[in-house]
Amino acid sequence: MTPAELTIPEVSDICNEVLERVGNAVVGKRDELRLILAAILAGGHVLIEDIPGIGKTLAARSLAQALGLRFGRIQFTPDLLPADVTGSFIYNQRTQEFDFRAGPVFANLLLADEINRTPPRTQAALLEAMQEEQVTVEGETHELEAPFIVLATANPIEYEGTYQLPEAQLDRFLMRISFGYLDRDGEWQILARRLERQREKITLDAVTDAVGVLAMRAAIERIPVEASVGRYIVELTAATRERPEVLVGASPRGALAVMLSARALAVVNGRQFVTPDDVKEVTVHALGHRLTLRPETYLKRTRGDDVVRAVLADVPVPPTAAIPRYGESQDP
């Protein structure tokens, strides 16, 4: 089915309704949910890295329900095999042939729960799916239904029983986001809502569906990015390669991730043009996990996010007066 064309204001309205619905389940994480929704609409995957018990899994399930997407979940464990992710061929005694039994990766929105608790060999089973939207099993390629989104959760590496994610897989995530603790009022709201509904499970009505999400993505592709904003993104990305703490800086794929994320976030925020503030809001989440730091920085507990924040403080911000609004002409 070909998705119907949506206007940018229509996409913004749908985004606002989705965030309102998800906010009924996830307390006090509006900013983080905006970023995740922007990543989904930009066609990317998201790594939510934080301690257990702060709503990562609930956020993924709630977004799938509000967006009307087919939901799949994999609980990553040390004994999980690649075939448990992608699926495998099973011998059918009736037909005397091997039939392909699809794994949980065949979903629109896949929750890869605690992805860093399984060995790298199984983590790598997701690489082809995340990049090519297909899986290959025993030489046979199977296409995944669009849209295909991975929301992966991970506990901090310092916690026992976790594995470092390979750089190649980290680079497949458009953004890395941390939730953090709620304030005391927010924690009380969680308790109060649980008492009010008198059950554990939360079910949300869908605002759109898979076809609608594809239409929203197509609409966002029409948003222009003014040359000064694009060059600002390039300067930020290039500056990560010149920091003394960095062994390998962000690649051009990182600059592309910032641009795509900022463009989608502008629409989520209800605007039809991209500003430097959109760029600054997504840059830490889009570049922080793409940096390889020098070994000595680990003694100081320096993280990639810290380096990107320093870059944001150093690189001059372009003026916004000349940025054209949606539909206005601009020089290439």
What report would you give on this structure?
This protein is an alpha/beta fold and 332 residues long. It has two domains: 1-222, Rossmann fold (3-Layer(aba) Sandwich), CATH 3.40.50; 224-332, Orthogonal Bundle (Helicase, Ruva Protein, domain 3). It contains 13 helices and eleven strands. It has helices at 8-23, 30-41, 56-67, 82-86, 120-123, 127-132, 167-170, 184-197, 210-220, 227-240, 252-268, 276-287, 304-314; strands spanning 45-49, 71-75, 87-92, 97-102, 109-113, 134-137, 140-143, 149-154, 173-177, 246-248, 292-293. The strands form four sheets. The protein has a five-stranded parallel β-sheet with strand order 2-5-8-1-9. Strands 3-4 form a two-stranded antiparallel ribbon. The protein has a two-stranded antiparallel sheet with strand order 6-7. A hairpin with a 2-residue loop joins β6 and β7 (140-143). α2 packs across α11 (252-268) and α10 runs parallel beside α12. It is globular and about 70 Å long. It starts with 7 loop residues before the first helix and ends in an 18-residue tail after the last helix.
The CATH topology of the largest domain corresponds to Rossmann fold
Give the overall shape, derived from the CA principal axes: globular
| Helix content percent band | 40-55%
Using the coordinates above, name the CATH class of the largest domain: Alpha Beta
Q: Which architecture of the largest domain would the CATH scheme give at its second level?
A: 3-Layer(aba) Sandwich
Structural class: alpha/beta
Strand order of the biggest β-sheet: 2-5-8-1-9
Fourth CATH level, the homologous superfamily of the largest domain = P-loop containing nucleotide triphosphate hydrolases
Number of strands: 11
Quote the beta fraction: 15-25%
- Average pLDDT figure: 87
- The end-to-end span amounts to 34 Å
